Amino acid sequence: MTVTTTTETEKVTDYSRRGDIDAYLGQLQGEAFRRYRKEWRQAEKELRFFPYPLFLVVETVNTCNLSCAMCFRSRTPSPQPAMMSLDDYRRLIREAGRLGCPSLSLNLNNEPLLDPLLVERVALAREAGFIDIRLNTNGILLTPEKSRALIAAGLTRLSVSIDAASEETYRRIRTGGDYRRLLNNLEAFVAIRDELQAVLPVLRCTLVKIRENEHEVDAFINDWQQRADYVSIQSYVPHSNDDESMTLHPDQQAKSANVTCSQPFERLVVTVDGNVLPCCSPQGAEIVLGRWDDTGLAKIWTGPQAMNLRRMMRSRCWHDHPVCSSCLNGTFDGHENQETALPEKETT
């Protein structure tokens, strides 16, 4: 079992039965994947700028079927349901593919399995040249038929948010979910992948540690480390400094003395209505870099607003930026971007 801790805005510890998951995927995907992950580490740790985004996040639908304790959506009004058309999506990922963008996530703060065109979108992304295609899901709608279709379409990573090792804790955290149904869905996914003799997508099971589930962290790791390809434990990061967010895990402390954010060096986020954002934070919705269908991803990526954000993050002068200061002052573990902050790895 390989344990890897990343020091970034969301502190994550991975427990992988495949060894280093990037190395494992590099063996399966080849040199292009290894080069992309090397560039990712340079963008993340060194704030290095590349002439293309390394990661495209696309919100194809804007709805969710659960209400979860740690999610900002549980405390904000639900948006008017919307879905990105397949024609728009096709044009978007083809442009990103021409730019050389290597990785794609087909969701933002939504449930991607609510998208009836999801399987087709995964297949189109693979055709466009993406080598790392990801989904983050709550897994409730991951039927055996959907699992089979996603495997065949070319999905690279399937990340499932569980957040509990017992049905009682799951019910308290994930309102509207069905723990037994989720377990059955994941068992079926693994069986189907084995039946097809497929190695992708890798399965990641995640827990965001808050007051309600911190007593189950060890049990969660033990339950999933031999069934999933890797297990991730993430420290809860509040979306604001309001009392409700902070009391989810009151022992954590915000700090902002020498932190910054690498997301503007890594990614572009495209919302369901066509806006392009520099990050995945809920606050980031207030920083609209442009509309991809008006300006194009290339001009937005190298445009003055995006470049100014990068200069600000490099020099750590974000304190006067109303959006970035709100976000970074509310995170528990800032991204220090120093040589000492490289991932620590140990094999057990």
Basic shape? globular
Helix count, DSSP H or I runs of 4 or more residues = 14
Instruction: Kindly provide the name of the CATH class.
Output: Alpha Beta
Distance between the termini: 5 Å
Name the CATH superfamily assignment: Aldolase class I
> Which structural class do the helices and strands define?
alpha/beta
CATH topology: TIM Barrel
Task: Write down the domain tally.
Answer: 1
Q: Topology as H/E string?
A: EEHHEEHEHEHEHEHEHEHHEEEHHHHE
Low-confidence stretches: 332-348
Q: What is the strand tally? A: 14
Give the name of the CATH architecture: Alpha-Beta Barrel
Largest sheet: 12 strands, mixed
- Compute the average pLDDT: 89
List the strand order in the largest sheet.
13-12-11-3-5-6-7-9-10-2-1-14
Radius of gyration: 19 Å
InterPro entries: 4Fe4S-binding_SPASM_dom, AdoMet-like_SPASM_containing, Aldolase_TIM, Elp3/MiaA/NifB-like_rSAM, Radical_SAM_PqqE_MftC-like, rSAM, rSAM_sf
GO molecular function: catalytic activity; iron-sulfur cluster binding; metal ion binding
Protein name: Radical SAM core domain-containing protein
Keywords: 4Fe-4S, Iron, Iron-sulfur, Metal-binding, S-adenosyl-L-methionine
